[in-house]
From TrEMBL:
Protein known as: Solute carrier family 2 member 15a
Domain Major facilitator superfamily (MFS) profile: 18-461
Species for this entry: Mastacembelus armatus (zig-zag eel)
Membrane-topology annotation of the record: Multi-pass membrane protein
Keyword Transmembrane helix: yes
Amino acid sequence: MEAEGYRTQLTWSLLAVAFLTSFGSSMLYGYNLAVVNSPAVYIKDFYNKTALGRNGTALSGETLTLMYSLTVSVFAIGGLLGSLIVGMLVTRFGRKGTVVKTTVLVFIAGSLMGFSRVCGSPEMVIFGRFITGIHSGISLSVVPMYLGEIAPKNLRGFLGLVPSIFIGTGVFSAQILGLHQLLGKEEHWPLFLSVVVVPTFIQLMLLPWFPESPRYLLIEKHNVHATITALKWYRAKCNIQAEIEEMQDEQRSLSSVETLSVWKLLQDDTVRWQVLSVVIINIGMQLSGIDAIWFYTNDIFENAGIPAPEIQYTTAGTGIIEIIAGLIGCFTIEKLGRRPLMIGGFAMMGLCSAGITLALILQAQLSFMRYVSVCCVVGIIGGFCIGPAGVPFLITAELFKQSHRPAAYIVGGSLNWLSNFTVGFVFPFLQMSAGSYCYLVFATICVSVAIYVYIMIPETKNKTFMEISQMFSKKEAVLETQSLTHVDQLKLKKMNGYGGVEHASLEFNSSSSVP
């Protein structure tokens, strides 16, 4: 009955925090992914003119491409750095404290990029992109962690997917603002890059008024009074005593209240399946090929015969699909659960990736295949945004107790950014060597991740963090029992057939081979 006591209590304060953290942090990640696409020509021209003014000679084609590639990819390097320091930040400053304090990075980056042309400094653009990357690396981990901890268990999925909707909104905002009629003109590109300071300023004005994560306050800071105050903010008419008792149960179950390091997390046998699951879904999220699809959308649309001037509007249309798919995921996750969204999303992406390969091979013979490839692009983007875009970050929060959670986010986040960087680096070479068949690599990865989720990851919908931990403990026990039963059966067969000496030797062998 107590669990029913705080069902469906979506309060204005919960919605406000989900909106503010996602609007001022998560949205910036999506915006910065897409912002450098439309002003690419103007940025390269600025780099060239600056070099001409400094050295009297223009940059070579190779150097210019290298500088622009660095401008794009340095964002991922910053993201990796941000994901590696997030554990230290959330333990020291808290979840909300980290979100608020890291806003300074956005203002520094926005100033660098905004004044880069006035100062005639390409280095300011590149360094500004690096700093926005650090902020996004921190945000991608801390926002789902914060929302996962303030949400009641029956709303954790809904609130956990709000950031992924805002990531899609960020991509769409960059596509719309990048249109020639808005900020897509040459004179506006510094403003286009630095407009990220506006949502962060709104976040900084309003978020400090809201309380810190109650779980952080109670389990890590032992502040019962602040925990009660925070829960009263975030809950409507419900018995908060039940939630406090559940947190205290978790606190008592922790072998150490100290936050674990990544090395200790990887050594902890009790969470090995959770760690493996986080590794696979975070790597799978990026190696699914979504970045390659986003990068080559224009080429695929051009191939389908869409007139060149209209491609920018068609690409913006894919941004709307991202937002709609994200909303569908957000409003169905508490009804369907996490598993169906992940399995369905990855399976759909796998099917559509194979479809793109087929369409590219057959489009010379069958003209309608060009339109099939467009449908497959839409299918991949929709499949990604409905589940794989947001659920991995939510699952990372749900699979671990308080002491393990920051280290788990470091593992998941760093692998996510490394995989992102790898795809961006390897895909052009993969496309050159494998041609149309390169999408089959992504199809195989997507289907493999879907199968792993189906077999290994239990449904976490409407479960407390303690219940989820116990589900994995049971899985561990079942797997160990099956392994021991199998060994015992082997011993029994051997003993029945050949007698005690053979049995003894097998027992020695099996014990030495089974860890």
